[in-house]
Structures are given as C-alpha cells and as structure tokens.
Amino acid sequence: MVAEDVYRSSLQATIATLRKWVPAIAASARIEQTEGHDVWKLSVAPTVPAACPFELMLRTDQKFDLSIAGEIFEDQPVSSLDLFLPLIDAIAAGRVIQRETVSTATAAPLSLETRVTLANGAVWSKIRELPGGHAIHTGDTLVQDRHFIPYRR
User: Fold this and answer.
1) What are phi and psi of 50, to 5 degrees?
2) Among residues 21, 64, 13, 62, which one has the least CA distance to residue 44?
3) CA–CA separation, 70 vs 63, rounded Å?
4) 89-113 pLDDT tens trace
5) Does residue 72 fall inside a structural domain?
6) What's the total number of domains in the chain?
7) How far is residue 127's CA from residue 73's CA, in Å, rounded to a whole number?
8) In terms of Cα–Cα distance, which of 138, 85, 141 is closest to 113?
9) Which of 104, 106, 134, 137 is deepest in the core (most CB within 10 A)?
10) Angstrom distance (rounded) from CA 100 to CA 102
11) 1: helix, coil or strand?
C-alpha cells in the first residue's frame, strides 16, 4: 500500500482528471458526481440504448467500488490510480463484454465475467461464480456474450 498522504494527493489528482473527462460524454449520458469526506462517486447512465452504464466509487482507504451494467465489484484494491481514466474511457467506447457461462445439460448459469478492453489492448476482468454453479456443473458449457455499444455513435 502507498503511504496515506501520498495516496490522498494522487487520488485528488485522479479525481480532477476524471472530472475533466466528464464533459466529453455529457451530451450522451446522464452524469452524477457526489463527494464525501472519504469517497468520490461518478455515476454514468448513457442515453443511448445498449450502451453500458457504470458507477465508480473511489475511496480514501485505497479501495474502489465499481458497478458495470449492474454487476457490482466492491472493496477492490487500488493497484494503480492510472487504471481509472482508461477504464471508464473504454466503457464509454463500448468495449465491454459480459460473458455468461451456462450448463448445456441444465441451462443453469455457472458464472458471469465482465470484461473491459482498454485502448492499449489490456483487459480488466472480473468473474463472479453464480450460486450453485459448480455443484450443478455436469458436462459441457455454453458461453453467451452480451456486447455494448459506444455512448457516441
């Protein structure tokens, strides 16, 4: 972990950068920013159907919360504050896939992966195992992808 005072300074610089990004998508999304003593939150709901909504909460405890198209990732450690601008830029550009894996035998969902491809080709990804997924996994699986479109077309 980074020293608290160094992190807070870098966090404020990151928040300032993200605030400068907001006008770039303001014409194509409803945007809400809120700030508290220990948290800054950006909520973005695109006006274009099939674009990906998200909510990012940056916290002073060197963790973040993120919701992408309804999938919630809480208490994620901040490995680098440099991740957030490319991440939200990629979401707004439509480079998000939600990948659901289902059992072909039962059609029961096994897992849901959220993938965001950054401009440099790197992928930010989180997988959520669905309740009972491993217990009912027998045989083959089917992968179904949900794609999103850019905020601006």
Assistant:
1) 75, 5
2) 21
3) 19
4) 999 999 999 999 988 888 888 899 9
5) yes
6) 1
7) 10
8) 141
9) 137
10) 6
11) coil
| Residue 127: closest CA among 141, 115, 143 | 115
Residue type, 25: I
Q: What's the length of the chain?
A: 153
Q: Nearest CA to 103 among 131, 68, 69, 142?
A: 142
Query: How is the beta sheet containing 109-117 ordered, strand by strand?
Result: 123-129, 109-117, 96-103, 141-147
Phi, psi of 2 (to 5 degrees): -85, 150
Token duo for residue 80: 């680098």
**φ, ψ of residue 17 in degrees (nearest 5):** -65, -45
Cα–Cα distance between 6 and 86 in angstroms, integer? 22
Give all strands of the β-sheet with 54-59 in edge-to-edge order: 29-35, 39-46, 54-59, 63-68, 71-77
> Could you tell me the pLDDT band of residue 138, with boundaries at 50, 70 and 90?
low
Please calculate the CA angle 87-146-57 and round it to the nearest 5 degrees.
Answer: 30
Q: What is the pLDDT of residue 105?
A: 81
Q: Cβ of 130: how many Cβ atoms within 10 Å?
A: 15
Identify the domain containing residue 90 by its residue range.
Answer: 4-147
* Model confidence, pTM: 0.91
User: Does residue 129 lie within any of the structural domains?
Assistant: yes
